[in-house]
Amino acid sequence: MAISDDSGRHWFALFTATNNEKQVDRHLQRREFESFLPLHTMVRRWKNRTTVKVQLPLFPGYVFAKFERSESWRVLEVPMVYSIVRNRQGAVVIPDAEIEALRAGLSGGLAEPHPSVTVGSRARVRAGPLAGWEGVVARADIGLRIVLTVESIKRSFAVHVSAEDIELLEEDAFSK
User: Fold this and answer.
1) How confident is the model at residue 114 (pLDDT cuts 50, 70, 90)?
2) Taking a C-beta distance cutoff of 8 angstroms, is the pair 107, 51 a contact?
3) Global confidence as pTM
4) How far apart are alpha carbons 103 and 38 in whole angstroms?
5) CA 24 to CA 75: how far, in whole Å?
6) Whole-number pLDDT of residue 7
7) How confident is the model at residue 3 (pLDDT cuts 50, 70, 90)?
8) What does pLDDT average to over the chain?
9) Distance between CA atoms of residues 102 and 173, nearest Å
10) Cys bridge to 172: 63, 111, 112, 121, which one at CB 3.0-4.6 A?
11) Among 4, 13, 1, residue whose Cα is nearest residue 99
């Protein structure tokens, strides 16, 4: 959805320098913009065999910010912000409900980045904070997970779900 007027603050996705998302998030907050950087926890093993938990961006190269269209120039002045995600109609507005659902879905700590996929069964989440989201079902080593995509930035993430919490949207190509 493109912006239709200049009034009110809306969520937008910002394309940023990869590995600088946390800095961009801090700069936005210092400039008094509401921002959201979805993170996931990953265990990393260093060369000296120590393991640590690190918080990494769920969508590398993207940060969400809430601002008025007239404030775009201030956002684009933030170091390491390359652009506001756009389509043919202009800057893409991310619905508040999508940001809130994403926040709620991440609160369980079970999300992880996942490459966008085109194979597998399409499904809709029926219950929980991500109810209504559609994605591709993938089998994981522990149960099912569904790969969901934030269409405006073409980035995906996977969340663990139970089979009872999803409904298939089309016949599974592998069951024929």
Assistant:
1) low
2) no
3) 0.71
4) 7
5) 10
6) 58
7) very low
8) 84
9) 29
10) 121
11) 13
Residue 159, pLDDT score: 85
Provide the pLDDT for residue 175.
Answer: 44
Q: How far apart are CA 27 and CA 4, in angstroms?
A: 27
Q: Which two tokens stand for residue 25?
A: 């998030």
Return the closest-CA partner of residue 17 out of 76, 79, 80: 80
* Residue found by looking up tokens 């109810």 in the block: 131
Q: What is the pLDDT of residues 145-164, one digit of tens each?
A: 788 888 888 888 888 887 77
Per-residue three-class SS string for the chain: CECCCCCCCEEEEEEECCCCHHHHHHHHHHCCCEEECCEEEEEEECCCCCEEEEEEECCCCEEEEEECHHHHHHHHCCCCEEEECEECCEEEEECHHHHHHHHHHHCCCCCEEECCCCCCEEEEECCCCCCCCEEEEEECCCCEEEEEEECCCCEEEEEEECHHHEEECCCCHHHC
